[in-house]
């Protein structure tokens, strides 16, 4: 790479390796502490909510005909008869080493990382989350690709053709994208492309990438586009604004004055600076999405983490809510870390700050 | 100026596109479903409520269920949702069961695994069943009386298998404190004393006292046979072993499962199930409107939940007669009522209770529940499908409007001519309950009764409205609640609501705290009777007295508008389940 920003960083070679390692180590420690805080808060809520309602968390696991035998059995099985600090310790231990829930005849082994047992399905939360994660991951990956290509592309084009018809149309569409909620665009898209025009078949929730790639692709197309529409809009507007700022910078003028071609000026010099804020937002968005796209998944009946989250909330399934929260927190924290590390590569001004 | 115009035009374009999509979308799917509606002959709206729609014996095809909620459990000892009981009949058989017949005929229990109805001796305390021969589990193992006993014993293991109906424990424990088979000291795990299995095809139940409801309890999933060697406790729900025409495969929580033919089910041993489809699929969705679209487009067959279509689909169905013909909207055995607490002043005075019954506007209560498609006005406390019910209407509630003059007269007779203050409780987690409370509040205001609405989390019912002390200390005189029966008898519906001996410190359901010796006596008479008609007559009397005492404003009998794919055959409403009978369904196109 011939770009000059790199050379600035190379000016301090002796301090670099240890400082970078220390930086990464510090950030990783941050990740662990953050997740511990999230775990503590979600666990606290698990006990705080029933406590505020003057009730017992065990009542979440039993039905309307709860009888004392059932309540006592479940209490012993889930360890809810132990003091809170011990339960918290078991929870943390379960996250690292797994644990077994047992009341004598009936044992459920919950392997690490054990996030508890779903009150709704009576099975370990972690197994359900990992089983549903690929759906969310594919949804996020596909949508992210689409919105990056179209969002950033549109933004750049708009910035270069400022106040043109293309710019205006793009920005109005972007405004619509930002303003229209997924449960509207998603339903309208389904009604139009599936039930009206018949371009796509009704989604079949029983196929996966492995079982039938063609049907799977048809399933995913609308969710990808709908979700990407929402995000592409933000990215187009952000790219346009940043690009316009960057194009006004002195070094762009210098580059042009040096006689560099417009392609090099925009593609190499301007894009690089423009990408910094985009990367930040992208990392956060992707991290957030990996924790579950609640609306999109539910509109299109995709059984991912967002579906689990909503199901957990509507069914009062506290361990599931805790699990999804912790899972999502993990991705957001990791995304932040990766973005920060990338920052250092893309923009040396923030390196080691 | 020009740029703004362009911007506006673009906005307009986007908007127009969205609108076109929405409008044409609705028209398109309506039309396509009309086209695919060639399945069976002509039938009127709600025909399935009283007759069999598209009768046929054609076999084959895949019956596609969709649902917005997963099953609570496929374990027959645990499942408690009404639609799960409906599905259970496809893979579970019990000693006696309900026949697939429309109307009241569907409520008469028939022998299923049993060869004939039981011999009842010892003054109604001993039930002896002989099993059919040739009945087998899906793995080919013959079903014996011991498997039925073992299945019943599992219900007792409430520490491992909670949340199911526990009537059989109340009937059969008789002080033994039987802990369930997992903690049973008996080597064969058959230690429950009240059930005896003298040989493999005989099972004898010894009750402590006569109980005319016992057969109905045996007809629930808990009375189904379970193979001891295949029982893995809480995990059994993932792969219940079938005794019926279909076996469960590929169950994944919150996603769905399949049912395929059970080769070891012998149709000649089963007079209750036609088993027409070759395969049945059950898919859980998160999008209720999408489910309706698929139903109307004909790509799926029926909403397993049977809770009614969403507002958007309802509007479309009701304005298209060809769609409306494929619906059923019949009353279930569930009443949405307002109870009146006799232990909270001034409702200790019958005239103050009557004032409330006269003052509340029934039509507004119905509207709060979702209008005429969601419920019909109730005039008393027995739903029409329960034996013993009649049209008793001492307060002219069928008119659906309040009687302010009589309400004021009742208030005067109560010594409160200017009204009084009280509190109405409603579950904040049930928005329709809250609407009912608000509607009642407005109606009571017109006669001078000032009611404030008290909202609470529905999952806390047992410790709030279910705790009489809580009701008294919070001055809660009125309580919006619902009650559905688990089996179609007067006691199955009304007993818990009015038996004075069932007033509990918490988890109480006798909200009005009525403890009337005459009512209690009739309850006992009905329980002792072995004649269903006699038991029904006792509950007619109980129901009348409950109404005369003004213990409840009965509100509405719940129903819901359900659409079914016109290709379905043998569609009929089961009065027992309050929904379409799934086990009778077939597919006219055989696909």
What key phrases describe this protein's structure?
heterodimer, A: 353 residues, mainly alpha, MetI-like fold, 2 domains, two-stranded antiparallel sheet, B: 591 residues, alpha+beta, D-Maltodextrin-Binding Protein, domain 2, Dipeptide-binding Protein, domain 3, five-stranded mixed sheet, 23 strands, 29% helix, 17% strand, globular, disordered N terminus
Task: Write a compact overview of the structure shown.
The complex is a heterodimer of chains A (353) and B (591). With 353 residues, chain A is mainly alpha-helical.
Describe the structure.
The complex is a heterodimer of chains A (353) and B (591). Chain A has 353 residues and is mainly α. Chain A has two domains: 59 residues, no CATH class; 220 residues, MetI-like fold (Orthogonal Bundle). In chain A, 71% of the residues lie in helices and 2% in strands. A two-stranded antiparallel sheet of chain A has the order 1-2. The longest helix of chain A is centred in the N-terminal third of the chain and has 37 residues. Chain A starts with a helix and ends in a 7-residue tail after the last helix. The N terminus of chain A is likely disordered. Chain B is of the alpha+beta class and 591 residues long. Chain B has two domains: 267 residues, D-Maltodextrin-Binding Protein, domain 2 (3-Layer(aba) Sandwich); 229 residues, Dipeptide-binding Protein, Domain 3 (Dipeptide-binding Protein, domain 3), CATH 3.10.105.10. In chain B, 29% of the residues lie in helices and 17% in strands. Chain B contains 16 helices and 23 strands. In chain B, the strands form seven sheets. A six-stranded mixed β-sheet of chain B has the order 14-18-13-17-15-16. A five-stranded mixed β-sheet of chain B has the order 8-9-10-1-11, with helices on one face. Chain B has a four-stranded antiparallel β-sheet with strand order 4-5-7-6, covered by helices on one side. In chain B, helix 1 crosses helix 6 and helix 15 runs antiparallel to helix 16. The longest helix of chain B has 34 residues. The termini of chain B are far apart. The chains are: A mainly alpha (353), B alpha+beta (591). The interface between A and B is large, with 63 and 55 residues.
């Amino acid at each position: 790479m011939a770009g000059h920003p790199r050379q600035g960083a190379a000016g301090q070679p002796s301090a670099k390796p240890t400082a970078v390692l220390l930086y990464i180590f510090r950030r990783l420690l941050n990740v662990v502490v953050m997740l511990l805080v999230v775990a503590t808060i979600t666990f606290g809520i698990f006990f705080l909510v029933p406590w505020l309602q003057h009730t017992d968390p065990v009542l979440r696991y039993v039905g309307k005909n709860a009888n004392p035998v059932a309540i006592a059995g479940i209490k012993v099985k889930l360890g809810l008869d132990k003091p809170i600090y011990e339960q918290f310790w078991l929870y943390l231990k379960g996250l690292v080493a797994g644990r077994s829930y047992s009341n004598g005849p009936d044992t459920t082994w919950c392997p690490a990382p054990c996030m508890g047992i779903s009150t709704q399905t009576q099975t370990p939360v972690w197994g359900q989350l990992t089983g549903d994660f690929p759906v969310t991951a594919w949804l996020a990956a596909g949508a992210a690709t689409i919105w990056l290509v179209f969002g950033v592309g549109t933004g750049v084009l708009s910035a270069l053709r400022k106040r043109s018809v293309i710019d205006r149309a793009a920005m109005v569409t972007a405004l619509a994208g930002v303003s229209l909620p997924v449960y509207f665009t998603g339903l309208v898209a389904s009604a139009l492309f599936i039930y009206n025009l018949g371009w796509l078949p009704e989604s079949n929730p029983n196929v996966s990438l492995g079982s039938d790639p063609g049907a799977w692709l048809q399933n995913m197309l609308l969710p990808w586009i709908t979700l990407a529409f929402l995000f592409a809009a933000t990215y187009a507007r952000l790219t346009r604004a940043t690009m316009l700022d960057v194009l006004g910078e002195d070094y762009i003028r210098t580059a042009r004055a040096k006689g560099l071609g417009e392609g090099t000026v925009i593609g190499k010099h301007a894009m690089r600076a423009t990408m910094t804020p985009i990367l930040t937002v992208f990392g956060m968005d992707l991290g957030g999405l990996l924790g579950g796209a609640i609306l999109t998944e539910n509109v299109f009946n995709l059984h991912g983490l967002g579906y689990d989250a909503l199901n957990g909330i509507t069914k009062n399934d506290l361990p599931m809510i805790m699990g999804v929260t912790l899972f999502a927190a993990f991705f957001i924290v990791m995304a932040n870390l990766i973005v920060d590390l990338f920052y250092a590569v893309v923009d040396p001004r923030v390196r080691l700050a | 100026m020009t740029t703004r115009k362009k911007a506006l035009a673009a906005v307009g374009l986007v908007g127009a596109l969205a609108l076109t999509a929405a409008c044409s979308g609705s028209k398109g799917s309506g039309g396509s479903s009309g086209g695919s509606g060639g399945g069976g002959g002509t039938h009127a709206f709600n025909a399935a409520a009283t007759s069999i729609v598209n009768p046929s014996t054609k076999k084959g095809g895949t019956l596609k269920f969709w649902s917005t909620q997963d099953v609570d459990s496929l374990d027959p000892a645990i499942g408690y949702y009404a639609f799960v009981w409906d599905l259970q009949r496809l893979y579970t058989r019990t000693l006696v069961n309900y026949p697939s017949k429309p109307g009241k005929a569907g409520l008469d229990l028939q022998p299923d695994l049993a060869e004939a109805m039981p011999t009842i001796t010892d003054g109604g305390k001993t039930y002896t069943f002989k099993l059919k021969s040739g009945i087998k589990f899906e793995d080919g193992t013959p079903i014996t009386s011991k498997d039925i006993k073992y299945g019943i014993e599992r219900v007792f293991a409430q520490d491992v298998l909670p949340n199911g109906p526990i009537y059989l424990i109340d009937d059969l424990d008789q002080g033994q404190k039987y802990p369930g088979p997992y903690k049973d000291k008996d080597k064969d795990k058959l230690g429950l004393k009240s059930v005896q299995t003298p040989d493999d095809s005989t099972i004898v139940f010894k009750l402590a006292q006569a109980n005319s409801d016992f057969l109905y309890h045996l007809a629930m999933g808990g009375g189904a046979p379970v193979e001891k060697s295949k029982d893995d406790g809480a995990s059994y729900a993932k792969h219940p072993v079938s005794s019926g025409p279909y076996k469960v495969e590929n169950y994944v929580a919150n996603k769905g499962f399949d049912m395929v033919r059970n080769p070891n089910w012998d149709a000649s041993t089963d007079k209750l199930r036609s088993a027409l489809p070759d395969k049945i699929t059950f898919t859980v969705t998160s999008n209720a409107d999408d489910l309706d679209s698929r139903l109307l487009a004909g790509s799926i067959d029926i909403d397993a939940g049977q809770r009614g279509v969403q507002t958007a689909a309802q509007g479309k169905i009701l304005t298209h007669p060809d769609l409306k013909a494929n619906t059923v909207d019949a009353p279930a055995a569930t009443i949405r009522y307002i109870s009146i607490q006799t232990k909270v002043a001034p409702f200790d005075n019958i005239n103050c209770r009557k004032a409330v019954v006269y003052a509340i506007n029934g039509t507004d209560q119905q509207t709060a529940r979702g209008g005429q498609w969601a419920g019909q006005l109730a005039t008393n406390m027995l739903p029409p499908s329960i034996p013993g019910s009649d049209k008793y209407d001492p307060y002219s509630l069928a008119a659906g409007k309040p009687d302010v003059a009589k309400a004021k007269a009742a208030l005067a007779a109560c010594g409160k001519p200017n009204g009084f203050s009280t509190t109405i409780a409603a579950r904040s987690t049930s928005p329709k309950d809250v609407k009912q409370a608000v509607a009642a509040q407005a109606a009571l205001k017109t006669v001078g009764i000032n009611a404030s609405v008290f909202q609470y989390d529905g999952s806390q019912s047992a410790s709030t409205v279910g705790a009489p002390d809580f009701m008294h200390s919070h001055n809660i005189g009125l309580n919006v609640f619902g009650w559905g029966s688990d089996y179609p008898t007067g006691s199955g519906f009304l007993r818990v609501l009015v038996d004075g001996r069932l007033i509990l410190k918490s988890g109480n359901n006798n909200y009005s705290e009525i403890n009337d010796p005459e009512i209690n006596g009739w309850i006992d008479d009905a329980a002792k009777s072995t004649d269903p008609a006699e038991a029904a007559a006792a509950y007619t009397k109980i129901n009348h007295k409950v109404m005369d005492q003004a213990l409840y404003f009965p509100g509405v009998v719940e129903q819901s508008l359900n659409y079914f794919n016109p290709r379905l055959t043998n569609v009929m409403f089961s009065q027992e389940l309050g929904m379409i009978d799934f086990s009778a369904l077939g597919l006219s196109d055989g696909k």
